[in-house]
Amino acid sequence: MAETGDASRLPTSLDVLASDVHSRLEFHRYAFMDCVGIKNALHCVIEERENLQQRQNAIDQLVAEKDRLTKKNEELAAELESLKEQLQARESSDQQQGSGFQQSHSGMAHPRSMPKRKRQSGDEDVDEHELMEDLSVIDNPDQGLNTELEATRKEISDIHSKLIEGFTDLSTTGGRNIALKNIGQLDDRPFLAACRKKLPAEEAREKAKEVHRVWQGHIQNPEWNPFKTVTVEGIPKEIIDVDDDKLQGLCAAWGEGVHKAVVSCLVEIQESGRLGDRNIVPEVWNYKCKRKATHSESIEYLFGQVKRLSDAKSRTRSAR
C-alpha cells in the first residue's frame, strides 16, 4: 500500500517540478528580453548623444567663426577709418604745397611714359613714379575704399555660408520659426489638393506630380518673367503681373490655391535677388515673418540651440 501511495504521488511531484521549471524558464526568457530591450535603448541613447554632440560641435565651430569674422570686421572698420584719415592728411598736405607744386605736377608726363628721374630731397631720393602713384591714390580715394568694401562683402558671404552649414546640421523637425527653406522649390501640396477635387485618388496623385513638374520648370526658366514695374512713392518696384497669360491660365485650370503657390514661389525668388539664376538654393528663412532671416536672427537662434543642448546635457548628467 505504501508503494502504491508513493507511486500515486510521483506524477503530482513531477507536475509541480515541471511547472516550476517552466516558470523559471519563462522568468529567464522575459528577463533576457528585458535585457535586450535595455541594451537597445542604451544604444539609441548613446547614438542620439553622439548626434547631439556632433550638432553642438558644428554650432560651436559656427560661433567661433562668427566671433572671428566679427573681430575681422572690426579690424577692417578701423583700417578704413585710418585710410580715410591718411587720405585727408595727404589732401591737406598737397593743398599746402602751393601753386608751384601744382604747376610742376601739371607739367609732368604720364607716369607710364615718364622716364625715371630722381631729385634730391635732403638725404633721400624721391622716385617720381612712386610720387605719381601716391598722387593717383589721392586723386582716386574711392579705390581703396572699394577694395575694403569688396573684402567686407566676402566676409559677409562667408558668414552666410557658415549659417547655411549650421542650419543644415540641425534637426529637420517642424515647428521652428527659423529654419532652412529651399528658395525656388514649388510646394506640391496645393497641386495634390486641387487634383483630388477633380480626379480619383490614384489619378490625382499622378496628375499632381505631372502638373507640379511642369510648373516647377516654368518657375526655373529665366525667360519667363511674369513681373511688371510700378512706381511707389517715386521709387520703381517690380511686382507680379496679374494679367500674365500663364498665371491666368493656371488659376482657371487648377484654382486659387495652386495659383497662390506659384506666385509665392516667384516672389520669394525675386526678393532673394535670383530672377536671373533660378536654381533651387537653401536659404535661412524666418517662417513667422515669411521672409529671409537676418544674420542677427539666425545667429540668435543658433545661440538658443546651443543653450538648449547644453541644458539637455546637464540634465542627462544630473540624471545619472
From TrEMBL:
Residues 181-309 form the Factor of DNA methylation 1-5/IDN2 domain. Signal peptide: none annotated. It comes from the Eukaryota. Residues 94-107 have a biased composition (Low complexity). One of its GO terms (biological process) is gene silencing by siRNA-directed DNA methylation. Residues 86-128 are annotated as: Disordered. This is Factor of DNA methylation 1-5/IDN2 domain-containing protein. It comes from Triticum urartu (Red wild einkorn). The lineage of its organism: Eukaryota, Viridiplantae, Streptophyta, Embryophyta, Tracheophyta.
